Amino acid sequence: MEAFINYVLQFGNLNKQQTDFIMSKAKTLELHKDDYFSEAGKIPKLVGFLLEGVVRFCYYNNKGEEITQYFVDENNFVSDQQRFEAQVIASEYIQAVTSCKLLVFSKKDWDEIGNTIVGWNAITGLIMKNCLLKTIERRSPLVSEDATTRYLSFIEHFPGLVNRIPLSHIASYLGITQQSFSRIRKNIR
User: Which of 26, 114, 160, 184 sits 20 to 30 Å CA-CA off 46?
Assistant: First the structure.
């Protein structure tokens, strides 16, 4: 819980009364590997902060292939924020890649925090902007680099993930087949 408050305080000032109020709205959620935090075709119900574990954002393309867009690990927000805020149907899945423990907020509680704490919306705006910039920073090299360089970038950006998540998810994230991925890993060793 302290990790969550420390994270939020990077983006703005809150006093103890305010942080206590925020924490009073938080619930703990545990997900097993492969459980969904949010599903395509449904309205996202929660905003989460990942205390333990790894999730991935993924979707199915028009050929029915599963595509991993990105990963989120500990001490980061997990949310389909735009669709959560607008309460519209999600087009992608947020799935636990490992067992996960999250602090979560319902839409009602999230809105109540925003309506009660002056400056909360500015703080969450900065948090979302930061999350978006991180995502773009991690994704944009994947467009222009060759597969080996993409994998080396993945290791650099997610040093602790390679041994924690299925290689099939990493291959999907990198936009290559599992066979190509195996070859690349073999050549790097």
Answer: 160
Q: How many domains does the chain have?
A: 2
Provide the residue range defining the domain that includes 77.
2-139
Alpha-carbon span 113 to 169, nearest angstrom: 35
- The CATH code of the domain that includes 68 is 2.60.120.10
User: 93 and 34, same structural domain?
Assistant: yes
DSSP character for 88? -
User: What is the value of pTM for the model shown?
Assistant: 0.88
Q: Of 81, 105, 98, 114, which Cα lies nearest the Cα of 28?
A: 105
* CA–CA distance, 47 with 37 (Å, rounded to integer): 9
* Distance from the first to the final alpha carbon of the chain: 39
Residues 44-85: tens digit of each pLDDT: 999 999 999 999 999 988 888 888 988 999 999 999 888 999
Are residues 167 and 77 located together in one domain of the fold? no
DSSP element (H, E) containing 179? helix 178-188
Instruction: List the alpha helices (DSSP H) in 12-166.
Output: 16-25, 81-86, 107-116, 120-139, 141-144, 147-157
* CA gap 111, 113 in Å, rounded: 5
